[in-house]
Amino acid sequence: MPINASAIHNTVQHVLASPPVTKAIQTALHAPQLLQAVEQIANDFDVHDDALDRLLADLGIE
Predict the structure, then answer these.
(1) For the chain, what is the domain count?
(2) CA distance 45 to 40
């Protein structure tokens, strides 16, 4: 069964913007290695940097 990269991309973007993940990222401000892991996952799934940057800006991180 072929992998639908577009569907995965959209799902990852949706998950990163969800309230539970947002809260986890806020909590992770005291654990930079967790933020690095989230960024690595986003990079692995080719999530657009602007979406991640917008999320981080909304969280007051960037």
Answers:
(1) 1
(2) 9
